[in-house]
Amino acid sequence: MPEAAGQPTGLRRRYCKVDLWPSVEDLLQRRTDLSTFLIHLTRDTLGNDGPSARENLLTMIGVGYIEARSPFGPASMHEPNLTAATQKVVCFTETPLEHTWMMLEDIDKRDVHFQPYGLAVTKTTARMAACNPVWYSDITPGR
């Protein structure tokens, strides 16, 4: 090993291999603002005679899947012929598990009121079951 500049003769620096660049997986594991889970919260069915949030959860468990029922997104408002076929979705949150309780709160200007019933799956499991991430688009007029 070459002598380091400015060091007395006979002294050598010790070198060791250090991974300077952590993997993406290592970084994501350490972030507390991200969750490795997707959570589907249930709610009471609209109307007084519909199933409760708990009954909705038990139905999902019984049939083994979550049924996409509600149309969502810009196309659901502008393309009525597409709504039934292509715009129905199942919604999940990536809220970390320890903060999920916040999703149950009454939030100003939010029409959806979740109950403390739901399913949690890992993102990996969800992707294998054909769950796809949301693509956000800016639909601000003039942009």
Give an account of the 3D structure.
The protein is an alpha+beta fold and 143 residues long. The protein has 5 helices and 4 strands. It has helices spanning 24-30, 53-63, 74-78, 80-86, 123-128, and strands at 37-43, 70-71, 88-89, 114-122. The strands form 2 sheets. It has a two-stranded antiparallel sheet. The chain has a two-stranded antiparallel ribbon with strand order 2-3. The model has no long low-confidence stretch (mean pLDDT 81).
Topology:
Elements: H1 24-30, E1 37-43, H2 53-63, E2 70-71, H3 74-78, H4 80-86, E3 88-89, E4 114-122, H5 123-128
Antiparallel strand pairs: 1-4, 2-3
Features of this protein?
5 helices, two-stranded antiparallel sheet, two-stranded antiparallel ribbon, 143 residues
Give a short overview.
By secondary structure, the chain is of the alpha+beta class. Helices cover 25% and strands 14% of the residues.
Q: Give Rg in angstroms.
A: 25 Å
Oligomer: single chain
Distance between the termini: 60 Å
Helices and strands: which structural class? alpha+beta
Counting DSSP E segments of at least 2 residues, the number of strands comes to: 4
Helix fraction by DSSP (H/I, runs of at least 4): 25-40%
Q: Please outline the major beta sheet.
A: 2 strands, antiparallel
The SSE string, one letter per element, is HEHEHHEEH
Number of helical runs? 5
Instruction: Give the low-confidence spans.
Output: none
| Proportion of residues in β-strands | 5-15%
Strand order across the largest sheet: 1-4
What is the average per-residue confidence, as pLDDT, rounded to a whole number?
Answer: 81
Tertiary shape: globular
